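Entry 12.
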Amino acid sequence: MKRLLAAFSVVAALWSSACSSGNSIVNPPPPVGKYSLASLKGQYAFVTNGESFTGGLSATPLARTGSFAADGIGNITGGVEDVNAAGTTSPALQITGGNYTVNADGRGTLTLQLAQASLNFGITLTSTSDGLMIDETSNTWMQTTIRSLSSVSSPRTMGPSAPDFSMTTTTEP
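Predicted 3D structure (tokens):
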């Protein structure tokens, strides 16, 4: 019985030492990738749809369509957007400026400044001509794809491919 207890104690000690991290903190590696501020440069189009929550549990359908210009050094130089909130439209709202960040792994932030408010997005670049935006403005849930206008050879529009997700690409005349 003593041998069985001794063997069990040795196995338990080995198991414990092999499976423990020794209370050391393991930091994740820094983001790596090929992206920088220069990866977001030029004209980009976007379409969002989703819901805006205005107190309580009520949700209002909300959609945005527009374009913005990024200068490749972290600034939004202008743009325009149309908004439809529960059937009430606000066409041709000017994007007067803004800024953005891009980490090496393609993730970052984007702020579009309008005359009366600013819109905050989380972004993920999937290439220098495509990416995703998630609206982080308070009480809003929307997701969209952004597409560089220079990467499109002909006008086209694609409808929703998943809930709260749309993609639109256009070319300038």
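Annotation: The first strand starts at residue 41 and ends at 53. Confidence is low (pLDDT under 50) at residues 152-173.
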